[in-house]
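The authors assume throughout that readers already know how a fold can be written as discrete tokens. A single example would do more here than another paragraph of explanation. An entry of this sort, consisting of the sequence and the corresponding backbone structure tokens, reads as follows:
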Amino acid sequence: MGENNTLSLTENINQGAGAIHFHGNTTVEGMKAGITWLGAGVDIDKDKNVIWKISNPAGDRLSKIGQGTLTINGKGENKGSVSVGDGTVILNQQADENNKKSAFSELGIVSGRPTVILNSSDQMDPNNIYFGYRGGRLDVNGNDLTFRRIQNSDEGAMVVNHNTAQTANITLTGIVSPTIDQVKVQAITSPDQVSRHLDKDIFTYQRFPHLPTNFIRLKKPLSVAEITAIFNARKVFIDLDFATGLIRENEYFEVLKVTDESAAKQQILAEKIKAAEGTVQGFNGYFGETDPSKNQWSIKHYNEQ
């Protein structure tokens, strides 16, 4: 493909573990409303821009790598999530006929290389933005945002304002007590599906309808790369007894001693509430740009606690 291409999808695409590598400027669109693409992610070459006018389905995570730019410019609510590991992502989602819009259900910024730019303050729920290992830049672009807390793993997280014409105000309200709807559950049918849903608290697995449902959770956070290494080493990731349909606890998974989803969620909720009690949720990243070669403008932050 050359420059200034248009890739038009006539129906929903499930590319499985496949990805798309863009070497030129491209617009990806659906021929009708609601078209989705499911796959491993997109890799965009340096100085190239891909305008993404479609969505990924609920429960799927789009991975963006490559030094180029991905511009999210669909319509309505995108139920999928995104992990940004390199380059630039511009969130410019448009409202649908019901005035609803959400660029993604969740946004992860990792590796320290990427920048995510918000074209408006209502692109997505700020509380569903997190900075993973080494973080990266969230450019609020002159927009005011309110967070309960800024979720970050280390000091690589940066909240910046590269809009030289508009001051941005960032407000931190503090954590409220966790609620049951914040406990995330994901049904899986095979072990390889876990890597697509690493934000979930509980995984459910049922081998056959007449066999019991298992409720399991990871004992510690794992990255996609770590899970891939486990499979490549031919280690047992989920230890299933095929005769009984029961999963046995191992070094990766804890088996919850419950028989229904409600009880499983209540157990995790109790742990979340206990963990939140008496804690001060600090942000140990940076407000403002640390690179003098980049545009810097005023960003003010307030703590309402």
About this structure: The chain has two domains: 5-175+282-303, 180-276. The chain has a mean pLDDT of 92. The first helix runs from residue 224 to 232.
